[in-house]
Amino acid sequence: MTSAPGNVWAVSDLHLSYADNRTLADGLSPHTPADWLIVAGDVADQFAAVRTGLARLRERFAQVIWAPGNHELWTPPDDPVRLRGRERYDALVEMCRSLDVRTPEDPYLRHHGPDGPVAIAPLFVLYDYTFRPPGCATKAEGLAYAHRTGIVCTDEYLLHPDPYPSREEWCAARLAHTEALLSTVEATERTVLVNHYPLVREPTLILRYPEFAQWCGTTATADWHLRHRAHTVVYGHLHIPRSTRHDGVPFEEVSVGYPREWQPRPTPPGLRLILPAADG
User: How far apart are the first and last CA of the chain?
Assistant: First the structure.
């Protein structure tokens, strides 16, 4: 597909295990039949629920583009699908393809709008504990600090790196693989980079618990928005929906979050416009 006259919207962190979030997600609809949707991870925790959620969104939108979050990669004890690590990711990719949902392993779609052709690149690069808490020089120090404070990401128990020895080694492999895919984008094209985690550390500086940042990205992607000519960077994970700029590039945090987080807001979260339709 080479052209797309519709709008491109984005959302993340739907967490469809919550009834209120499922109801909210059922109201996420395109403005036109030609609209596309970016889903930047954390659709649900269980494999079947991820499939159901993406299938419903795919029924409404002309294209759905998915990047995995940490929750999709969990192997919860009550999930009948017992796959772990890379095997789980590979199975999620095949499931998405069966739904005609684009993944980080598929050729990038191009959106043709007022800003010209833009390659929409869903990424999966994980994290490597380099967003360390203040005063911590190593991963071991950062994890020790987190355990002392009691702020430890559930990934430590449910996100398995198999067959890699560690999550940071899986991250290193994903970085190399993703760089190779991004190199296929023409030097004249701009990109929308879609990753569950922020590509730069700055968005994590407002976290209430700074020790959580070590599960939020990698310093290896700090210049990707410049090197890969980003029109916009889309991410989630932090559950702090907002728009910021880094080096002049828009960064859009598009998470819904848990009901306790979004219900107190004046208006419920919805879709974020990333690229307008060709006709404006």
Answer: 20
Q: Taking the model in full, what pTM does it have?
A: 0.96
Residue type, 274: I
Tokens of 212: 């959580």
Number of Cβ atoms within 10 Å of the Cβ of 10: 26
C-beta separation of 37 from 63 below 8 A = yes
What number of residues does the chain have?
280
One-letter amino acid of 203: P
For residues 79 and 87, what is the distance between their CA atoms, to the nearest angstrom?
Answer: 15
Neighbours of 93 (CB within 10 A): 18
Q: Going residue by residue through the chain (280 aa), what tens digit of pLDDT does each one get?
A: 444 469 999 999 999 999 999 999 999 999 999 999 999 999 999 999 999 999 999 999 999 999 999 999 999 999 999 999 999 999 999 999 999 999 999 999 999 988 889 999 999 999 999 999 999 999 999 999 999 999 999 999 999 999 999 999 999 999 999 999 999 999 999 999 999 999 999 999 999 999 999 999 999 999 999 999 999 999 999 999 999 999 999 999 999 999 999 999 999 999 999 999 987 6
